[in-house]
Every structure is written in C-alpha cells, then in structure tokens.
Design a protein that fits this description.
Length: about 140
C-alpha cells in the first residue's frame, strides 16, 4: 500500500513538456518502424489497444536507471522480430493516467498486449534470453 501511495504521489507531479516541444524527434534508431512513443490516451487506444499486432508496452521514466538499461535491450529484441510485434514506450511522468490504469507500481514494467488485453507482464530488468522467450510467447512462435 505504501508503494502504491508513493507512486501515486510521484505520478501526481506536474507533467513535463513533451519532447517535441524541445525540437527532438520521437522514435528510436533500433526498430524504427516497430517502436513508438505514446503521445496521449487516444494514441494509446489507437496504436496499442486496437492494434492488430501484439504490442509490448514499456512503462518507464527518464530518472529510472534500470529503465535506461532495459529500454534499448528490449527495442533490439523487438526489432529482431521483424514486424511481428510492436513496442510502445510510455513515460509514466507524462502519462500518469495510463500508469495508474494499468496498475504500474514500479518501473520498468513491461506489459504484453494482444487484442487489447494484457496477456503477460514483468517488472525489472531481464536478459536477452528472457526477453526473447517473453516475445516468442507473445507472438506464438
């Protein structure tokens, strides 16, 4: 309960300006076509919940050290799947409502979504073998 209250307090901090306002591009070099940053709730609905492909959702924060390790590793593994799965990146500081809705109590939290439903989840860092198994289970390979 204390963790949840601490997270809710943390998530209630004022949102920062979106990256685009600072002239930086959204997206990443690894898996450019399969990885995207969630812009808002309707973008999440359109690109994640309504996606015909399975989606890995990476809830992270700029201040989170483990997130900085997991994010690029996960992007690399998603890119290896050659378009069979997408990756949505959700910054919990910018999208508090989504973090609360999906009961994110720590970062990094990664959800596996298929047909709009959460079918798997993990919290913390995983190595490449564990990520590969997680993705293969999601895409049914």
């Amino acid at each position: 309960m204390a963790q949840r209250l601490a997270l809710q307090r943390l998530l209630s901090l004022p949102a920062r300006a979106p990256l685009a306002a600072h002239g930086r591009a959204f997206g990443t070099s690894a898996g450019r076509g399969s990885t995207f940053n969630v812009q808002d709730g309707s973008d999440f609905q359109d690109r994640v919940v309504n996606s015909p492909k399975p989606v890995v959702v990476d809830f992270h924060a700029q201040w989170c050290g483990p997130c900085k390790i997991l994010g690029p590793r996960l992007e690399k593994m998603v890119a290896k799947q050659e378009g069979k799965v997408l990756m949505a990146k959700v910054d919990i500081d910018d999208h508090t409502d989504l973090a609360i809705e999906y009961e994110v109590s720590a970062v990094p939290t990664v959800l596996a979504m298929k047909n709009g439903d959460v079918v798997d989840k993990f919290v913390g860092i995983k190595d490449e073998d564990q990520l590969e198994a997680f993705l293969k289970k999601l895409i049914g390979a």
